[in-house]
Amino acid sequence: MKAWHKEVIRVHYKDTDQMGVVHHGNYVNLFEIGRTEWMRHAGIPYSKMEDMGLLLPVMDLNINYQKSARYDDLLVIYTKVSNFSKVRLQFDYETRLIPNNDSPGEIADTPTGELLAKGSTVHMWVTRDWKPARIDRFAPEVYALFQEA
Fold it and tell me: Among the options 17, 73, 109, 129, which is catalytic?
């Protein structure tokens, strides 16, 4: 789980306050974008996972803010799985100002660009009726994908 998935996004006006600064709560949305695109890139889009009867609610969220993003900035959201078990999953994130030579949708060994915020989310696999699900038993093919990632 050493490689980071990269997702590029431009800051829209709707995501800023009157000063043109990205509202702190929007970093949660950026992390979600990073997570869902990581899953898609790994071959497990959320829609497929939900069709299988699996949900992945957030159990814990941590954000450390370093610097503000502003309207029209081009950002890169780095996402990787830092820990996973048969019942839980942790994603780590870094949101950075995009360097001029960066390109979207690639894998990176090391995040580049000026760090704006970093954090993590912890999730638990559950069924549609919110009962814990051991991913190795409920969806062994999904578990295998995480082992390969």
Answer: 17
